[in-house]
């Protein structure tokens, strides 16, 4: 379980988070939505300790990480993986080496075991036979898939997805969403996703939270979220077309 | 006015403090396992081996022009025989360390800043953090070590090539005495000069890799920020090399 209590953060003199309270349920896929610039990615980075709050607490299980540093923070991070907006693959490494990177660096794994696990993950994300390619040779969707393979390879408890479909065409975005859902159902990790893909996210998320003016305006199971009477939220989620029924039902 | 000056001074001191913490933390991470031997060799290849051509080229022509200028000046006093010592001492004491370090700044330092800066902008450094791999240990420390080893080796090559460049012009081209050229080097160059040159080149190697890594690591998230970081890295490294050279020389002399 991840829990943020009264988290405040100011960046460049601009208050971004102004008292965020949110509890991420274990083993579920929770999506955070909100307008651009509301601080959704900032919120996500607090959960893994990439940013530290000015005030408030960040709990990962029973560890409060907001003031942790060095080895203690790294111990917590071992439970996480993150898929970044641009996939954040290492340019100088091939797809295979990118996926193998955490295995070699963190688990000191070598030889055939690395090859077996990397090829298994590449196959799961639909990139079999692409291991020799470099990130610059991949399309946006393939980069995201490779990033997902790298996130999955350590079999983490928690995966954070920072706008995983940004910059992709609708078909590719759908295939990435389908992949995330399939992997989530298979490996049962706790997933937190930041996304603008409305209404699609309602069909795939267990829970949806909306960040507004630096606070969580509403967090509810997807099926209940769409029934909210808050006019501003209704406008926000309806602007891209009719909202699909609850993800849990459709899944 | 005073307020602005004070704010500038505070910002400068803070920046210097950040730079110091950056390099100390990187060296501290170097002492913790695992030892990034492969990374160090890769960086040594990039900073050292790949800079060899430009260093040899610069050294050759520097030695040649020194001999050209020196030969005609010394001939006025009938002292052409001292050409070798003039070229060698200039090379070993000053021009070798300074010019080689400036060439490494221009070729490898700017590339280091750009590489680390792009990794920052594209969140590759954050990705390392999320994998519980310290970027200072994985990315920065090997570059600092490679700078400390690579630059002195390049300076040694610079000195040798420069002295041969001087021989080529002073003896082969202008007809000076070859024996006198080498003999004057042997009698004029002390070990103290060589040690001084090595000390300078080690400190310059640290300055280049330190400043260039720091500027790249704290690049602002934009193309403009990356351009500015690269420019600042090259300018600051070059200025620091020249200023530090003056202070070291005044101590060593």
Provide a short characterization of the protein structure.
Chain A is an alpha/beta fold.
Topology, element by element:
The complex is a heterodimer of chains A (251) and B (253).
Chain A: E1 2-11, E2 14-24, E3 29-33, H1 40-47, E4 55-60, E5 63-64, H2 70-77, E6 80-83, H3 95-106, H4 111-124, H5 140-152, E7 158-162, H6 170-187, E8 190-194, H7 200-204, E9 207-212, E10 215-221, H8 222-225, H9 231-238, H10 247-250
Parallel strand pairs in A: 3-8, 3-9, 6-7, 7-8
Antiparallel strand pairs in A: 1-2, 1-4, 4-5, 9-10
Chain B: H1 2-30, H2 37-47, H3 52-76, H4 83-121, H5 124-130, H6 135-173, H7 178-188, H8 191-217, H9 223-252
Helix pairs in contact in B: 1-6, 2-6, 3-4, 3-6, 4-6, 4-7, 4-8, 4-9, 6-8, 8-9
Task: Give structural notes.
The complex is a heterodimer of chains A (251) and B (253). Chain A contains ten helices and ten strands. Chain A has helices at residues 40-47, 70-77, 95-106, 111-124, 140-152, 170-187, 200-204, 222-225, 231-238, 247-250; strands at 2-11, 14-24, 29-33, 55-60, 63-64, 80-83, 158-162, 190-194, 207-212, 215-221. Chain A has a six-stranded mixed β-sheet with strand order 6-7-8-3-9-10, sandwiched between helices. In chain A, strands 2-1-4-5 form a four-stranded antiparallel β-sheet, covered by helices on one side. Chain B has 253 residues and is mainly alpha-helical. The mean pLDDT of chain B is 91. Chain B has one domain. Classes of the chains: A alpha/beta (251), B mainly alpha (253). The A-B interface holds A 45, 48-50, 74-75, 77-78, 80-82, 84-86, 88-91, 101-102, 105-106, 108, 154, 160 and B 34, 118-119, 122-124, 126-127, 129-134, 138.
């Amino acid at each position: 379980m991840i829990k943020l209590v009264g988290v405040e953060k100011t960046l460049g003199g601009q208050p971004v988070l102004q008292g965020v309270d949110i509890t991420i349920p274990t083993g579920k896929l929770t999506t955070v939505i909100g307008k651009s610039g509301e601080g959704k990615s900032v919120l996500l980075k607090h959960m893994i300790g990439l940013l530290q709050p000015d005030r408030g607490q960040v709990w990962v299980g029973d560890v409060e990480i907001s003031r942790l540093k060095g080895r203690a923070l790294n111990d917590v991070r071992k439970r996480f993986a993150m898929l970044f907006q641009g996939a954040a693959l290492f340019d100088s490494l091939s797809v295979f080496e990118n996926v193998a990177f955490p295995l070699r660096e963190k688990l000191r794994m070598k030889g055939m075991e690395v090859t077996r696990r990397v090829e298994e993950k590449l196959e799961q994300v639909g990139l079999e036979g692409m291991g020799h390619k470099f990130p610059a040779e991949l399309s946006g969707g393939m980069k995201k898939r490779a990033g997902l393979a790298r996130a999955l390879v350590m079999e983490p408890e928690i995966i954070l997805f920072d706008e995983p479909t940004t910059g992709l065409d609708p078909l590719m975005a759908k295939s990435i969403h389908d992949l995330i859902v399939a992997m989530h159902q298979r490996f049962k990790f706790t997933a937190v996703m930041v996304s603008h893909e409305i209404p699609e996210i309602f069909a795939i998320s267990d829970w949806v939270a909306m960040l507004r003016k630096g606070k969580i305006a509403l967090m509810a199971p997807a099926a209940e979220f769409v029934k909210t009477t808050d006019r501003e939220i209704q406008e926000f989620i309806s602007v891209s077309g009719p909202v699909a029924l609850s993800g849990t039902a459709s899944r | 006015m005073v307020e602005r000056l004070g704010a500038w001074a505070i910002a400068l001191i803070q920046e210097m403090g950040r730079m110091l913490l950056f390099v100390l933390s990187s060296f501290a991470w170097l002492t913790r396992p695992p030892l990034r031997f492969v990374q160090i060799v890769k960086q040594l290849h990039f900073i050292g081996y790949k800079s060899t051509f430009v260093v040899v080229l610069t050294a050759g022509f520097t030695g040649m022009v020194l001999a050209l200028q020196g030969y005609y000046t010394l001939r006025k006093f009938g002292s052409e025989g001292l050409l070798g010592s003039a070229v060698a001492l200039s090379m070993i004491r000053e021009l070798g360390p300074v010019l080689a370090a400036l060439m490494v700044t221009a070729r490898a330092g700017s590339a280091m800043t750009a590489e680390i800066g792009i990794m920052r902008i594209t969140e590759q450094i954050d990705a390392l953090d999320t994998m519980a791999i310290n970027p200072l240990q994985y990315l920065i420390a090997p570059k600092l070590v490679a700078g400390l080893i690579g630059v002195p080796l390049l300076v040694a090559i610079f000195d040798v090539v420069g002295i041969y460049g001087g021989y080529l012009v002073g003896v082969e081209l202008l007809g000076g005495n070859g024996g006198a050229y080498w003999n004057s080097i042997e009698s004029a160059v002390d070990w103290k000069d060589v040690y001084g040159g090595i000390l300078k080149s080690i400190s310059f190697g640290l300055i280049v890799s330190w400043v260039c890594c720091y500027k790249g690591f704290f690049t602002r998230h934009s193309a403009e920020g990356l351009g500015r970081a690269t420019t600042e890295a090259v300018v600051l490294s070059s200025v620091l090399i020249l200023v530090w050279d003056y202070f070291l020389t005044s101590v060593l002399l």
